[in-house]
Amino acid sequence: MSTLAPPQEYRATTDQVAGLFPWIVGASAPILGTPLGEHLSTGAAVCFDPLSAWRAKAMTAPSCFIVALNGFGKSTLLRRLALGDIAAGTRVIWPGDVKPDGRRLTEQVEGGQIIEVGYGVGSINPLDLGPIGAAIEQLSDPQLRRATEFALWQRQLNIVAALMEIVRRAPLKDFEETLLASAIRLLYTPRRDGGAGFDRKNPAIISDLIDLIVKGPEELRQDVVADSDLEYREQTKPLLRTLRALIKGRFGEVFNGRNTVRLNVSAPSICLDMSSVPPGDELMRGAVLLAGWSEAFATIEAAHVLADAGLGPNLAFHVLMDELWQVLACGPMMVGRIDAVQRLQRTIGTAITAVTHSVAEMKAAGALGFVERSRARIIGPVPHAEIERLSEVISFSEKEKEMITSWSDTADLNTVIDQKQARGGASPIAAGTGHFLLKLGEGRRPGTPFRVVVPEAEREAGIHETDARLTAADRDRTAASA
Question: Which whole-number Å values give the CA distances from 108 to 49, 212, 396, 463, in the listed order?
Fold first, then answer.
């Protein structure tokens, strides 16, 4: 036989199993939440999701990192994780769905919320006070109110500065960021106190920020240490040029208008569909992804603030940050901005899963720390060069390296095709598809190799269909030739 099927694995007490088969051995397959698939060696069930593993103390933080080449089942794995969390009552947020991967799932989940962001369909105002602003109005404790206001100003400053760095393709200067911080605060300071008088019901937009900087209140002049009107103008020109780029053309359409993004924390699945942004527009994709992530974490922060004040329920969230590489590709300064987006929220009760197809961009940007800080790593088929880059932050045995690279090698060479038909008579699956290695914690603890199994109900629902256009083309071609 060219292949030898593994024996059926049973889970039971030692007394029961001994009566069935005297030489049974245990399988190192975790049972930690969502059923993902079966162990590649034993066929035992493999269950995992970040929050369940964290609650079971199998990892110290509910963070996960997934890396695999395109076309090998990352999106299917992500949706399996999402469905398990939804069933357990965890709110799932897809804050940057550019393919989209989560929309069809969210459409079929009762009560799911879909928000479109992109050219002509929806906008994100980075200066909107949003859910945190609404939460502040409900707080009676002065100290908590002040702390939350400060967190809101920091979040607004981080996202505005990040968008400016994307269009500028270079980091802001120190005094520019100081001026921005003061200007954003003055926008929402009452007129009687010398501010612009904007509030939650009448939020400022980027154009208003430009107008305030052009007027040059005394505090802003002090921030740039300008001794005259002419010097202030010269010092702020580069900043104003960058801000004007955010209100023109495609950027202005998305970021310089009323905020259409309002996440409903009572929805089991929330999807920010950004697929209207063309794949070739890398800067715009990076900008909307970062803005969507910031909006998601702001919503989570607001929910936690209200819960701490006894004004709302305690909720658990899982944020799925797909296409991490597209933001990192915008420049090395994005590492700190992404880190700030995550760190500006309370991590308790919030799981984060970041997804990318390669860590090459992350290594170039000095962002391998994202992988290091993730307590769970799931590695799918990757080439030899990629496994060597991953080895800088993850411990692999030689056998694990050989196994992972073999999944991509056999498919790339087109020499091995899994001819076993999937349930329901689906087409043959390319070798390596759906194969992953789960690594928990640090050290040299062996990982768990598994194959994702898609239940029949999910297959029939079509939520994992990512090649809809090609499938439709094949169907029409077959019908035409019949």
Answer: 21, 46, 39, 8
* Domain span holding position 96: 26-123+261-482
CB 90, CB 267: distance < 8 Å:
no
End-of-domain residue from the set 259, 285, 319: 259
Q: What is the pLDDT of residues 135-194, one digit of tens each?
A: 999 999 999 999 999 989 999 999 999 999 999 999 999 999 999 999 999 999 999 999
Tokens of 84: 């398990």
Contacts of 276 (CB under 8 A, 6+ apart): 116, 117, 118, 119, 120, 121
Amino acid at 386: E
Confidence of residue 43 (pLDDT cuts 50, 70, 90): confident
Residues present in the chain in total: 482
In total, how many domains does the chain have? 2
- The position carrying tokens 């590695």 is 379
297, 442: one domain: yes
What pLDDT band is residue 325 in, cutting at 50, 70 and 90?
confident
**Is residue 375 domain-shared with residue 426, that is, in the same domain?**
yes
pLDDT tens-digit series, residues 384-428:
999 999 998 899 999 999 999 999 876 555 444 444 444 444 555
